[in-house]
Amino acid sequence: MIFSCSRTDRRGAAQPERSLFTFIFFLSFFLAVAGSASAGYGPNVKLIKDGGGTWGSILEMSVELHGSSARFTVRKKDGLCFNTESNISIRISSTNGKSLASEIVQLGDNSARLTVPLDDRSSTQSYYAYLFNSYGHAWVGPLKIGDSPDMSPEISHTDRPIIREDFVDYQPMRGSRLEPPRIDNRPRTVLVNEQVSIAVTVNSCRDGVQLQCFAEDSNQTRSNYYESERIWSDTTKYVSFSFNRPGIKTIFCKTRNNCCSSAWASRSLRVKERPNAPPQPPRISLDPATAYVNIPVRVPVLPGRDSDGDRVKVKCRAEDSDTRVPPGWFNFPQWTDVTFTFDKSGTKTISCVTVDQKGLESLRTKRSITVLDNTPDYKNSRTETKINISVETGPDGTNSKVKVHTSKSDDCAPFCNESSDITYDKPYLPEDYGYHADPAQEDEASYSPEPKDGDPVRDETIPDMP
């Protein structure tokens, strides 16, 4: 029993010794790990979006700490690609502070990644991302990094990682989610209103996918986007775009099926103003063929059409002429009268061009016109009027009448030659100086049934000659 007891006591004494050894071992290991952790910053991530600049707050910045360095990632808040070449730098203390690292982002890049060494861990440092290009500047920050929670840094080695999926580099995993399409980077430049086909490569899945694309200021808008039929195998689709405004434009595409959508893929291109094409030449009427010195003559002219759809007008000129063109622009070509007044006789040349609203002129159209000296001379024209008056008596000596015959001829050759005749007769009225017609019977006057020679004729009004 004693032996047994003594053995039992010795085992009981050994167990605390082993427990103490184990405790000391793990404590040493923990201190070593803690010391190792305190020597660096750990893989911690922080995101900040506060900023400003020419276009307002458009950037966001995240940082990932690795040992004694920090890896900054700068993107656009809207998730789109950068639409022009820009310089991005990481600066300390302020936007005007010392630049620790810089990078050039190209047209179509979606982020900039810059690594900065963290040499001084004794205090909190403020970091800014600063972007500038030929159009303006933008900045985001400050993002503070320190090593002690007591100093209220935004990141310390005691922080837990803050990671957002949409800011992690996307690595497609087939079978788990849809892959974004790949947009070909050609062409880089197109013209306004030019039809261009962009190749978009799609990776499908067993359920099939549809491709959706749109672009700003194009025929494929955000509300009226392109959508393909269901695609069952990996393929390349050609999406047609036509841009109506110049500038840097971004194309967006994604794939989707019944359950989900891929991330948006995007690329930018430059849209340039289309060179102005000249309008078509005008048409000049061949009528009239002649004109007279110092007498205005109107010549119809039809402007040509403009291939760019601009409004048009005509400009005309002629030798030895004062030329007047009606003012104003035409949305559609229509005939207009151009007035020429020539001050010399001879064969003259009329020439006209079509002008668009941008001031570009067409080829010149020409025609000849003959200008004469023998202008109309109305002073040499004459009018001749003849009047014949006769008295006619019936066979039985009654029913005598006065017959008046007139004729007129106008001789204004070679411009006119007119003549007219009129015959006017009335009953003969015998001479009776005491006769007074009854006003009430003036239209049906009573006449002497037996007129005598020498009797006066009743006054009547002879109608004017035509």
Describe the overall structure:
The chain is mainly beta. It has five domains: 35 residues; 123 residues, Single Sheet (S-adenosyl-L-methionine-dependent methyltransferases); 91 residues, Sandwich (Immunoglobulin-like); 90 residues, Immunoglobulin-like, CATH 2.60.40.10; 65 residues, no CATH class. Helices cover 8% and strands 40% of the residues. It has one helix and 28 strands. A five-stranded antiparallel β-sheet has the order 2-9-8-5-6, with no helix packed on it. A five-stranded mixed β-sheet has the order 11-17-16-13-14, with no helix packed on it. A four-stranded antiparallel β-sheet has the order 1-3-4-7, with no helix packed on it. A hairpin with a 2-residue loop joins strand 8 and strand 9. The protein is elongated.
